[in-house]
Specification:
Blueprint (H helix, E strand, L loop, with lengths): L1 H35 L16
């Protein structure tokens, strides 16, 4: 039982920040597109959410 706990805890420590990061970048891109009033697909860096 203790081993399963550590595996789940380790997995959560890896996956939760990654998922949080992708959500934050998606929200930033959506805000940039809303501010620009158009689709910025080819103009935004998908890794940072900022303009290239």
């Amino acid at each position: 039982m203790g081993e399963l706990f550590w595996i789940i805890l380790f997995g959560a420590c890896i996956w939760v920040p990654l998922i949080w990061n992708k959500i934050a970048i998606g929200k930033r891109i959506a805000d940039e597109e809303k501010k620009a009033g158009r689709d910025l697909t080819g103009e935004i860096n998908p890794f940072t959410g900022g303009r290239m």
